[in-house]
Amino acid sequence: MLPRPPSVVIEALSPLIEGGRYPIKRAIGEDIVVEADVFKDGHDVVSALLKWRKKGQTRWFETPMQCIDPFNKDRWSGVFSVFENAIYEYTIEAWGDYFRSWQHEFQVKFEAGQTELTSEILEGASFVGRAAKLAQDQGQKRDAERLVVLSDKIREGTPEIVNALAHSPEMEALMTAYADRNESAEYLLNPPPIAKLVELSAPAELSAPEPDAEPVANAAAPTSKGTAGKVIAFPTESSPSGKKGSAKKKKGAAEPARVVEEPASAVVAESTPPVPTTPAVQFTPRYPQVYVDRARANFAQWYEFFPRSAEGRGDKGSTFRDCLPRVEDAQAMGFDVIYFPPIHPIGITARKGKNNAVNCQPGEPGVPYAIGNRHQKCPNGGGHKDVAPELGTLEDFDWLVKEIHARGMEVAIDFALNCSPDHPYVHQHPEWFYKRPDGTIKYAENPPKKYQDVYPLNYHNANWRPLWEELTSVIEFWCEHGVRIFRVDNPHTKPVAFWEYLITRVQSRFPDAIFLSEAFTRSKMMKVLAMAGFTHSYTYFTWRNTKQGLTEYFTELTQDECAEYMRPNLWPNTPDILPSFLQFGGRPAFIIRGVLAATLSPVYGIYSGFELCENVGLEKKPWDAAAAVPHFLHLCDSDYKQLAKEEYLDSEKYQWKQRDWNAPGNIKEIITKLNRARRENRALQQLRNLKFQRADNDLVLYYSKMTAARDNIILVVVSLDPFHFQDAYIDVPVDEFGWLEDQSYQVHDLLTDERYLWTGRRNFVRLHPDKPAHVFRVRRKMHSEKDFDYYL
Predict the structure, then answer these.
(1) What's the pLDDT tens digit per position in 385-411?
(2) Residue of 44, 322, 518, 564 with catalytic role
(3) Which among 243, 701, 726, 790 has most CB atoms closer than 10 A?
(4) Structural contact between residues 68 and 77, judged by C-beta atoms closer than 8 angstroms
């Protein structure tokens, strides 16, 4: 049999990002639900398998898919789980199932009262006999013998016996395990053009190739004698170019979650009669991919502080060796990632002073983002592969990393591709920078802001390849020093292709590397950076304060396609951003934003000082926010410049920061309870289970998170008003929990340890500025004993 076009259509596969150009993302232990439309011409019954494997392997795991479209029977679904930090491939294989088509046809005729079914009985016996041969070829002797017996029973049986045998559990299981997949189709990202398939299939005397014809890139050649065939599916999605992967397997049986070998080619042919030799055509099938990160990519709580301010002294800087008390305080609050802003040498030329003053006063430490000082005689030249001497040595840094790891935590460092005028790159590779007409190097600008202490790199300069390789080697250098998490400063100002190259190369060597994109920019750029490989993404959370804004934005992040590749990492504050909501709302505002960040996403972080409710900004307008809260929230979202400059006064980007780490009014206890609730409740460790629920007050946000097994249910109720009491009736979705409307249950507030007994759907909450949120764990009443009720 010559190669032929596919006999089954497989299309509208999901999840699939940009036609398979980019992989979807999951973490170890997560499931991937795959759906597709699968159908064929005529009335044959279709069967389908979901297949997956680690990239580079030839053996597939597979599991049957289920039809989830009860009307048209075209939509199919399957699920698989991933358990290694690696790249996986997945696809769908489908075929017209001859046995089940016969099974259905025979049943219809039998139930219609037809008695002359001799031909149909012999046909069914032949299908079962063919399955016996397949079992024998696979070395499954007992199954083969049993199928032979069943084939004989069908051949010799009456219509009543045959119909019963055809639907017996034993027959169903065996015919599923040894299905005839000779004419199956496989979903590919790069299907061969049908015309080329037909052309290459034709006998030489009917279709001789042109004398100077070029080989066909997207087609498959016949293979050696005796090889079973696979037909490539022709999906309707576009097939953009991308990475290629090998795919070879032998014909295998379809069993739930079993391993099979792929045939030597995705399109092959039987070799009787012999086919005239044709030029070999190379074809490498491409499949959709999923990048599987380690668990911390999916669930983590970050704490950011400047090492030089670790002791909270305003008169001198701290060192790496002074950081452990700050690390242990963060650990006590429940954080597991310690994130350091840039730790590299700081330039002298055009060094900025306090509050971004153009002139730096003697003794001022400068801005850590102005990286590079070749005059300090650092071991690696004073650039991105060195630490600032005032913080200590590389050995001191290694010691601190080891101590943090010993406490079950990790270090994240800032990857800021800024070069001070004193950076060694400026003197060794001036061609890597932008030039003015007079030949001098341009400093960075974001009009009207000027950054005289920073030179931006030109990623498209004539000597760009060594630049890309050098910057990639910086990440690899710090990976070798025990760092696996990198927060990338302003990645949207560098080419997307550069990030795709860097992340791919680093993760090929260090697959556990995690990258956070700090891109507060256009939505499309934020999304494409996530597609290109960034593990986490900053979001617009900072400027989503209204009920409508939060609901719409987080529905998009958690329920739309971007949830397949973009993991939000929520920050209520950063060294660059002190939101207006915090400046005006005081301590209640910090509690509100902390609860939202910790419960809306499984990954969040705070910048040091948040736990102390630091909210003194550079410039705050005289605005009575409490008098018109809805309008205030609207301005926070859409026009914050009417309210304040969202920058810290006396920011520690420019100076050492004096602090009392246990100052009165801090919210460290609340943050500790939030992080404990996150660790102890699996529902808060997931992203795509967020669902907004109904509350009859526009200043109260209400949402739920629940595990698939419904054994961990969380309800979060948050006031968006930091100034006043707010009441609301909320609808508890007891039907989604699988409970009866009149059933009693307990809600346990994980922030206050208060417990309430509720019944049914509609219940009342009251929130006030000192306690502006509830994080309820919902427990169903299981049974009662005298004077005591049990809730689970």
Answers:
(1) 999 999 999 999 999 999 999 999 999
(2) 518
(3) 701
(4) yes
Q: What is the SS3 string spanning 558-584? A: HHCHHHHCCCECECCCCCCCCCHHHHH
Strand, coil or helix: 393: coil
Q: Active site includes 489?
A: yes
pLDDT classification of 62: cutoffs 50, 70, 90: very high
Say whether 685 sits in a helix, a strand or coil: helix
In the numeric block, which tokens belong to residue 672? Answer: 């500790």
pLDDT of amino acid 263 = 43
Q: How far apart (Å, rounded) are the C-alpha atoms in residues 95 and 184?
A: 4
Residue pair 240/22 in contact by the 8 Å Cβ criterion: no
Query: CA-to-CA distance for 619 and 279, rounded, in angstroms?
Result: 74
Q: For residue 261, what are the β-bridge partners?
A: 59
Q: Tokens 């529905």 sit at which residue?
A: 555
Residue range 104-162, pLDDT digits in tens: 999 999 999 998 999 999 999 999 999 999 999 999 999 999 999 999 999 999 999 99
Distance linking the first and last C-alpha atoms of the chain: 62
- Here the tokens at position 73 are 């029977």
Q: Which of 93, 97, 489, 637 is catalytic?
A: 489
Measured N-to-C along each axis, helices 159-166 and 98-111 cross at an angle, to the nearest 10 degrees, of: 140
Strands 231-232 and 185-186: parallel
Helix or strand (DSSP H, E) at 302 = strand 300-304
Q: Which residues contact 749 (CB under 8 A, 6 or more apart)?
A: 755, 756, 774, 775, 776
Tell whether omega for the bond before 273 is within 30 degrees of 0, i.e. cis: yes
Q: What is the pTM of this model?
A: 0.88
**Hey, which bits of 452-571 come out as E strands?**
455-456, 485-489, 514-518, 536-537
Contact (CB, 8 A) for 36 and 10: yes
